[in-house]
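Lesson 9: reading folded outputs for more than one chain in a single document. The general rule is that every protein is listed as its sequence immediately followed by its structure tokens, and records are never interleaved. Here is the first one.
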Amino acid sequence: MKKKILIIGQNGLIGKNLFNYFKSRKINIYRISFESFLKKNFLNSFDIIINCTSNQKFVKNKYANKNDNDFIIAKKIINLKTKLIMLSTRKIFKPKFNIKELDKKEPNCNYSINKVISEASVNKILGARVLILRICNIISMPNKNKRKLHNTFSDIFFEMAKKGYIYNNNKKIYKDFISISKFNQIVYELIKKDSFGIFNISLGKKIYINQLIAWLNFHNTKKIKVINIKNSFNNDSFTLNNNKLMKQIKIKNNILELKNECFAISKKFFKKK
């Protein structure tokens, strides 16, 4: 791949992992903070910009252009040939089985409402020069970035596991998960295909919470106390339909791979303790 890529967001989970993944494949890739990006005027030298940043005002407040980093980036590159990869979320939909890209959007918080508005705004500005990724839950080692806006399922699980208990080991609740390594591969393949438009980034399968916890806890030698709380964030079940994605890039993406990745993450986390 001969494309020159810029990642905005130096220390977040996705930005850091994407950078290391592309760097290991000798891709011409750079990374800067959003604050530094605003001061730069050499953007025409990049083929692709991947925005991995957001901010608390965008997450918590009602929509405003000034709080929308993707909108600001799109406006800055409007007259260039540079493409933007925008990270979105499955939260713009009501939780259910087999959510498709064209399903009715039903956001129910400021963050998800803002993402719907942002997607539409960026699409209007850039058209075929934007690739929007609607991402399910990412499984990884805990994200140690102090400025992170969200705790991932992994962050919450490992923090609780260190304390000796697990939050809501529910046998009926399922979600869609994907490992950070598989996410990196998907982004790489979509760029190779010069993809644009909107894609669900997911495994596309039901992964039950108790099943995932067992995988992530596999190398933990300490006993774990399970606490079930009815109104936890874990009580919404969903999967994202990834047929469009798999037709586009045709890669291996299955439950066994996720299970093995969880075992590897578990070993890395608990064996170092």
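And here is the second record, again sequence then tokens.
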Amino acid sequence: MNVITPIKITDTILVSSTVPETVAATYSGATTYGLGDLAGLAPVYGSAQIVYRSRQAGNVGHAQSDPLWWEVAGTVYPVYASGSSCPLLGTVTDLANHDLYISLVAANTGNPLSDTTKWRLTGKTNRWAMFDRLRNTETSVPKSMTFVIAPGVRTDALALMGLSNVDTVTVTATSSGVPVYSHVENLDTREVLDWFTYFFEPFSTRKNVLLLDIPPITNIIITITLSTVYSGQSIGIGACVSGSAEFIGHVQYDAESDEMNFSTITREFDGSVSQLTPRASVPKNAHTLIVKKQYVNRIRALRKALGGVAAVYAGMDDSTDDYFDAILIYGVHKRFSINLAHPTNAIINLEVEEL
């Protein structure tokens, strides 16, 4: 079991991203666009703007519906402006904190975002959704995305979790401009269990990637690219966690993968169901670990540091193993007891809940 305590991604650490966050310039058929230039329809305050990226240099006079010249880069919302009027259920961006707010009233003008009677926080912008602590809020764009992080501290681990429709993950790293790391992983998979699934089971992609061999260099620059080979298909990532991995023991065969279901059921006097209210299920894991006694003091210090802190708990190193996803979780520990009964080995009972 390796535990990755995430570094906090800030504006300084996120060097660049191809996922747009701000409103793009209004498209004009008379403007010549270069390769990678962004443009969209004229923005309307409170409404989404679809941002297009130029696929070629010398792009002039081509409609944004032309796939040879343009591709969808993502969707953004206007930045909050106190003097502008936002309609009911309109959305604005708090660019300073990378948050999205929805208007709770019509003609919402002059009300600060802190006024909870006028605005409701709905989460992070699309660019930053992968860096919050929730794996079910994803950064999603068509076809591909590339982002670059500069941790600023020594980091040797990277977890990419909650991937959807991603065929290929490419991770490269440089130090002072010199390449120091490269990893390419194909995520295409197909769960063939019998002859029927051999012939009829659709192709799918793995959901998580874990890298534990990144060089621990202070000034490292890490570039991550996620892509799909299917034109027009959106890809997503629920969580990107960079940090240092700490070994806390070997997972034993009795590991458990479970979920807490928060749906409610209302029953009549005879036991029949009168109402079922579906709600989210929250994954949780339970493990028994064995570790040599010389690790105990380091693990105790780590346990204290992780009190109330979300971290990645990876029970296996091999992301291609069928058990890998079941015992990989991004959450907080609810139980972390260390049994010292054995003279040379300690037994750890660990329970982790996802956020």
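What the second record shows: The radius of gyration is 24 Å.
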